[in-house]
Amino acid sequence: MADVKTLGQFIIEKQADFPYAKGELSRLLRDIGIASKIVNREVNKAGLMEILGKTGVTNVQGEQQQKLDVFANEQFVKALSSGGECCIVASEENENIVRIDSAVSKGAKYIVAIDPLDGSSNIDVNVPVGTIFSIYRRKNLAVPASLGDVLQRGTEQVAAGYVIYGSSTMLVYTTGKGVNGFTLDPSIGEFCLSHPDMKTPETGTIYSINEGNYVHFPQGVKKYIKYCQVEDTATYRPYTSRYIGSMVADLHRNLLKGGIFIYPVTAAAPNGKLRLVYECNPMAFIIEQAGGRATNGMDRILDLEVAELHQRSPIFIGSPAMVRQAERFMLEAGELSFSDIPYSLHNRFL
Ligand code: AHG
Ligand code: MN
Ligand code: MN
Fold first, then answer.
1. What is the pTM of this model?
2. Which residue, among 78, 260, 115, 253, has the nearest Cα to 181 in the 3D structure?
3. pLDDT one-digit tens code per residue, 218-234
4. What is the CATH number of the domain that holds 312?
5. Ligand 1 atom closest to Cα of 63?
6. Does 2 reside within a domain?
């Protein structure tokens, strides 16, 4: 056990890398780590508690809130409120931003956007779920923090991460200097460094997409799926199809093994399903830091303008060679713009 490094130790060691507010960002990351351990405890014993099932409430997304969605949201908001470093929490589960006005957070410099529980539909059936978080710095400390501080482009993130509550629980995060993964050792209750400097393979053999929506996909996506299924030994095709339905779990697997995850526009989700602020941007930051690529099929996710808190975006994310290949099919099919996503030549990322 001599060379075990805990998340807390690692954060302190690395804080010299932070461009500003070193101790504060460290404390914020530590608070997120603590809240995720509390959520992990409840997820682990979900079947034993009165915590499975729906609350009966429909959230702002028009989705049925699960009890664990609400519990996880409360835990993260509580941890971030008492920590004192965060002045606004933007959550999937809250229609509006949550301001933290307590004395302790008066001078707080950070904004946290969070998907407290990702993969809600998998909670009741013991399939991995996750948490996604994204951290921004307040734009102007001289004026009160506002929604404008949340609606920053993904390139402005100072840190992002996810927690996967799977066969083991892991916390993976980046502050823009590579990606590191920590596995929770339940015997000591600490996240311990297990995956230093994570890199995603340049290419892979896994494609992840909800193929049940096939008829509603854009032509380029349909053609890419067919490409994945064609036999070609030189490129290790046909690829393997893997889709869990929890973005965190699907992306974590693909990051480690090499693969592509696509959630395109569909008839039911004309702007895509996944949310830019607390799903696409943090995952795009992480995957880019791991050497991967994330676009909406044409433009880099991190460069997209953010106009609304719960804005959705299509996403193509994973091993760079695979994402580029899918983009080629989009381009060939002439799918150069999605309904209300601004497309401009100078913003192209091919
Ligand atoms: P959430 O549980 O936070 O609402 O997110 C669910 C998301 C994402 O995790 C997953 O990739 C996707 O929804 C699955 O959607 P489909 O069931 O439409 O495939
Ligand atoms: Mn989600
Ligand atoms: Mn969620």
1. 0.93
2. 253
3. 999 999 999 999 999 99
4. 3.40.190.80
5. 4
6. no
